[in-house]
Design goal:
RNA polymerase subunit sigma-24, transcription, transcription regulation, 9 helices, Rna Polymerase Sigma Factor, Chain: A, Arc Repressor Mutant, subunit A, mainly alpha, 2 domains, DNA binding, RNA_pol_sigma-70_dom, single chain
Amino acid sequence: MHEPVDITSTELFQLIGQGDEQAFATLYDRYWESLFSQACKRLNDPEKSRDLVQNVFMDIWNRRGTLRVDQPEAYLRTAIKFQVLKETSRKTGYFTEVFEHELISGIRADDILVGRELEYLLKLFIAALPAKRRQIFQMHYLEARSTAEIALSLGLNRKTVQNQLHTASQALRLRLQQLFMISAMFGCFFK
């Protein structure tokens, strides 16, 4: 195993940015299983889940010179969710594929600007959540804490935490879908 115990995941990303293959192997060893489990839970397809995890790590290595990650666990969890979303959307037909291609092409064209716009929209969304739901959402997605940890920390039932996360995630998904659809109709998203 490649795992030095005393190095943080943030430090690993910094070393990877310098082309350190050992740091990349350590990151891979540290997160492969949890990302695979996350993908497999959603897809129920071990082979496809392995491919998606490989895509996440290939993307990290390919973008190592420009990729800056402050919250590695949140970044990786989001990356695998995005891969699962892409895989799921492929099964829904031609329109989704064309839409996804246009969306991704726009994102690649100006990553920094798009990232800032999406970050701003996410901050607005989070600020609009009820206080307890906002706290749970931030703890889970921004601090990478499990539902069990959140429940214990806030003195809540784990199911309550899961329900709050589900409600917030569904609302965010709906808002993003509305934004993407409106923007696609007017041809102005990420342009």
